[in-house]
Amino acid sequence: MLPVRRLGSSLISPSVRATTTSAIPQTDELLVSALKSKRLITLNRPKALNALNLPMVRSFYPQLKEWNDDKRISMVIVKGSGEKAFCAGGDVLSVTKSAKANDGSTVHKDFFYEEYQLNHLIGTLSKPYVALIDGITMGGGCGLSVNGRFRVATERTMLAMPETALGLFPDVGGSYFLSRLRSNLGMFLALTGYRLQGADVYHAGLATHIINSSDLAELEKALLDLPSEQVNDSRVDDLLKKFRPSDVKTFSLANELQLIEKLFDGKTLEEILKKLADNNSEWAQKQLKTLSKMASGLA
Ligand SMILES: *[C@@H]1O[C@H](CO)[C@@H](O)[C@H](O)[C@H]1NC(C)=O
Ligand SMILES: *[C@@H]1O[C@H](CO)[C@@H](O)[C@H](O)[C@H]1NC(C)=O
Ligand SMILES: *[C@@H]1O[C@H](CO)[C@@H](O)[C@H](O)[C@H]1NC(C)=O
């Protein structure tokens, strides 16, 4: 594995460099390394839990677009720097600052527009895309991972779509990937912002695979070592499955699944609130409290 380099002009393989457009903006916050036909992106803002900002999106998108169209690139892997987070979300600080500045800054508008385009490209990528979602994975971090074909969780993964607490809707493709989860789990996760931990991320269907965090380095190496001509979805799937720990914890929401399925089933929010209110279980009353906190901006 070659050392991580800055994005842009210094892509390692000369044959690839020949077709690399030089206009791709460079940033130390998004690192790219290359090994033969594989590309590895590292979100590199560990102090900000790798929160995604506009410069990172502006580096990520054109690079990924180029790889998508380049037959010599076989696979893309994305991970976060440090042990705490894959990506804690969009960089709310820069967006809020821009929105309040009243100085002509358009970061708050550009960020979402361009972020969603990146999410869409990840969701339609023509080759395997493997997100190693070790640690905190929230909001924009789900956009960079759940939309892709392979999401590998560890026992340290904490995943949530917490947008309703901010008065926002679950964006970054959430209405697509949440609505496709079983048992109305998506509606539950979207409205309450519930935080899934470790194996629960896998059981809920938001991760496609689960491994032990102590095996992450080995998995990364195994992926990068796959012979280029062997890289396809089923080969990657097989490899990821080999890293599955022998004792994966059971779904901690197993006992609530039936309640979630029944009570979070409604065409309108009012319908769901009524179902929760009419159900005297302690669990339903707790969800009702959470939802009113979200609605009042007190979460
Ligand atoms: C992860 O690996 C470590 C060290 O190899 C081991 O002690 C631990 O039990 C494993 N955890 C799981 C959940 O498999
Ligand atoms: C994927 O690649 C493997 C070789 O690595 C091959 O055996 C298999 O048939 C391929 N699968 C598909 C669906 O192309
Ligand atoms: C709550 O709803 C569940 C699922 O419909 C039902 O089985 C249960 O009896 C209800 N509990 C109460 C106390 O209303």
UniProtKB/TrEMBL annotation:
Q: Name one GO cellular component term.
A: mitochondrion
Q: Does the keyword Hydrolase apply?
A: yes
| Keywords on record | Branched-chain amino acid catabolism, Hydrolase, Mitochondrion
Using the record's annotation, list all stretches that form the Enoyl-CoA hydratase/isomerase domain: 39-295
Question: Where does this polypeptide localize?
Answer: Mitochondrion
Q: Annotated Gene Ontology MF terms?
A: 3-hydroxyisobutyryl-CoA hydrolase activity
The pathway is: Amino-acid degradation; L-valine degradation
Q: Which reaction does it catalyse?
A: 3-hydroxy-2-methylpropanoyl-CoA + H2O = 3-hydroxy-2-methylpropanoate + CoA + H(+)
Q: Which InterPro entries match?
A: ClpP/crotonase-like_dom_sf, ECH_dom, HIBYL-CoA-H
The record's Gene Ontology biological-process terms are: L-valine catabolic process
According to the UniProt entry, what is the EC number of this protein? Answer: 3.1.2.4
Signal peptide (UniProt feature, chain positions)? none
Please report which protein family the annotation says this sequence is part of. Belongs to the enoyl-CoA hydratase/isomerase family.
What the protein does comes down to: Hydrolyzes 3-hydroxyisobutyryl-CoA (HIBYL-CoA), a saline catabolite. Has high activity toward isobutyryl-CoA. Could be an isobutyryl-CoA dehydrogenase that functions in valine catabolism. Also hydrolyzes 3-hydroxypropanoyl-CoA.
What is the name attached to this protein's record? 3-hydroxyisobutyryl-CoA hydrolase, mitochondrial
What organism does the UniProt record list as the source?
Steinernema carpocapsae
